[in-house]
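Morning - magnesium ion inputs below, output right after.
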Amino acid sequence: MDNKQRSFSAGYLIIAILATWLFNDLVYKPFIIRETEVSYNVFLQDLKENKINEVILNGDRIVFTLKATENQKETAANVVAVTDPDLVERLIASGVAFSAQAPTKSLFSTLFGWILPLLPLFLLWYFIFKRMGGGGPNAMSLGKSKAHEINGEMIGIKFSDVGGVGEAEVELREIIEYLKYPENFSKMGAKLPKGVLLAGSPGTGKTLLAKATAGEAEVPFFFLTGSSFVEMFVGVGAARVRDLFEQAQKKAPCIIFIDEIDAIGQARTSVAGIGGNSEQENTLNQLLAEMDGFAANSGVVIMAATNRPEILDPALIRPGRFDRQIQVNLPTEPGRLEILIIHTRNMPLGSDVNLERLAKITAGFSGAELANLANEAALLAIRKGIKTISMADFDLAIERVVAGLQRKTPLSDAIRSKVSYHEVGHALTAYYLPGTDPVHKISIIPTAKGALGYTMQMPEEDRYLIGENELKARIAVMLGGRAAELIVFQEASTGASNDLERATEMARRMITEFGMSLKLGPVRYANTTGSYLRSGVSGREDLSPATILHIDQEIHRLLDEAQNTAKQILTEHIAVLHEVATFLKEKEVISGDDLTRIVTSMS
Ligand code: ADP
Ligand code: MG
Ligand code: ZN
């Protein structure tokens, strides 16, 4: 059933009930009663004088008709019943026809008799609809109301309010250009992506960027969060989407922004657990349908933000939908400085405040955390009753923000050094070993997932077949970080444990799945469902202890060889290792091109 329909009939039911008793108690009854009311002694007198034709005992009233006389027709009158135990006897004695009627309820008794008991029910009903965003019992336009509230708003935020988002800003400039001068695009026959997805960890400024895009383009901004779409009652989410798109189209050019889209856009299979979540599915389907029904040049740009792009339904990121993904990264040191400047520009800073230094020691802080840091410092200064904010306030604020964050301790110099060498170890091994994917990016900004740094490689083409030597090279790259630590610091660190895990898994598969060990031969040792597991725990009981020992020895040999390969490469290019590591420690993030540039300049 359609929801509008349901609330419609519910509203009318109430109106019908109200109208019934209003008419009964306020119009009908008073009309007949007040006109003809007489007092009890008049009634008794009339009864005694035999003037009465008929008597009807009607609860608290006695209605009677007077016999017609020469100058008067038969008239009705009524009297308020008094407690008269002799009444029936008197009536019998007088010989009039009398009967009783069930009393009709008065307004008062109606109210207390059943309206009040039902009141909690009405209240419940009211709050349920309010929760749905319907705004109370007169929500005959349920599902529409929320969208009414989000009239496309003009936003005053500009890119100058956003710092350290570099590439994302460049990509969004194009969208702004389109919103401002759509005719330039249509003249060229160019189509812009309908949907732009901002992806990045929490607090990196995705919401802010979306607002700034609307602000720069000077177009209306429709803001909605994914969770406000998903409602308890079937149909509302979908109705809301429909309504939103209708309104936006009227205001084009404009931006629709769906914040935290993962609330509706989660992969459908993953939410369809027991009972499923069909409401979320309906909403998502409606969103997809609306996006498809949109002409690419309608002037409406749909933006969305998510912290978890990987859990989104693949249908959402298909061409014609959110086909442009913009990564919003944690800020690098210059970015952090920009953000700190933005958030302190209205603050009276003491002369000792060194924002450059603050930017340097806040690696891993998001934009939101930096904003929070500036605010904390101001609060501390206010508490001390001083007029300017000093560096000491900032230092204390860092401690506070960090304490509230765990793990995000600004990394010490020594640790940053280690992480730099580790990552460059991976990168250079990849650079010098043939058959490995080119390095795309090296970073020592701690990630939200807990890694202190990462090296990203980017395959040049899809790989369907991988040779044994390539696999060995990959393992060497995985162990390259550890190898660099061994060379430079003469010891490995815990930072390499994930590398070891991946390398070991790879080596294990080479031997047990791909038959890449001469000693063990072209035999599959892994069981069918997963990779080879150690005997005992649901492993292959048919493997002899000797075979298991051999497998372990072979894994060991492969990993040893790979680590030696990496060590050899890094020792050979030790000067490059030092150079790149120093550069990375300074810059925090370097691109594959930077790496190539440094390496070629040194050889
Ligand atoms: P997200 O949507 O990515 O979680 P928000 O845009 O909601 O992050 O950021 C929250 C607040 O943090 C913003 O309102 C702003 O004050 C601050 N902030 C976050 N990133 C930045 C940035 N890059 N530049 C300036 N301020 C930022
Ligand atoms: Mg946000
Ligand atoms: Zn590593």
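Note: The first helix runs from residue 3 to 35.

O.
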